[in-house]
Amino acid sequence: MRRQKAPICRKVMEREVEMLDVVLVLIALATGGGGAGPERETLTLTPAEAPVAASSSEEAPPPVASSEETPAALPYEAEPQVATGRFLTALEIKPIMGATRANWVAVREWDGQDLIYVTHIWSWRCGLAAMKLGVNGAAPEDWPLPPCHEDTAQPNAMLESDGLPYRAFPLKSVETVTVELIYDDLTTERSTFNRQGVLMP
């Protein structure tokens, strides 16, 4: 009899954990993500202004540092920030990205290579204008985002035609990964992650 109850208890626990995830996302959305936290730099840009960096500070791994560089003016236009309920704008995804910062990237040792995954970022790409990535202190370079599939029920879904959400590097060569997200409201967040903080088992 006990053996039959164990799978039922496990299913109940799994549902409770899933509900907790939903509650946490709703709290993040309702509170605006808790404001600017440590280890990130937030920039607000308009086409006529030079960028001005916000403050940054230290935080425990996975982020190891935030750059204080001032990026060049962005070649994008801000999009209207209207809540759609479909997570298509910075207004909707910024609190989620702030709450899930530790999941932005992952490093995996596979088949004699280091693979850097950006699956989490791609999953929320509809509120982004661009994404940049730098490895081992190199300046972040553009990593093209797949299109947002607004004509479907799940616009952030990754389709086979979108390509693969990872890039390969020589084995054990990735020590740090710097990610810069440019939201469609032209605010920018940038974080650097150390290998140990984002290494997949």
Question: What is this structure, in a nutshell?
Answer:
This protein is α+β, with helices and mostly antiparallel strands. It is 24% helix and 24% strand. Helix 1 crosses helix 2 (90-99).
Low-confidence residue ranges = 33-61, 64-70
Integer count of domains? 2
**Spatial extent as radius of gyration:** 18 Å
Range of strand content: 15-25%
SSE order: HEEHEEHEEEEEH
Which bin fits the share of residues in helices?
10-25%
Number-wise, the strands total 9
Indicate the overall shape: globular
- Return the average pLDDT rounded to an integer: 76
Number of discrete helical segments: 4
Distance between the termini: 36 Å
Q: Give a short account of the largest sheet.
A: 6 strands, antiparallel
Structural class: alpha+beta
In quaternary terms, these chains amount to single chain
What does this structure look like?
With 201 residues, the protein is an alpha+beta fold. Helices cover 24% and strands 24% of the residues. It contains 4 helices and 9 strands. Strands 1, 2, 5, 6, 8 and 9 form a 6-stranded antiparallel beta sheet that branches. It has a 3-stranded antiparallel beta sheet with strand order 3-4-7, with no helix packed on it. The chain starts with a helix and ends with a helix. Residues 33-61 and 64-70 have low confidence and may be disordered.
List the helices and strands and how they pair.
Blueprint: H1 2-31, E1 41-44, E2 63-65, H2 90-99, E3 106-110, E4 113-117, H3 119-123, E5 128-135, E6 141-142, E7 166-170, E8 176-183, E9 187-194, H4 195-198
Antiparallel strand pairs: 1-9, 2-9, 3-4, 4-7, 5-6, 5-8, 8-9
Helix pairs in contact: 1-2
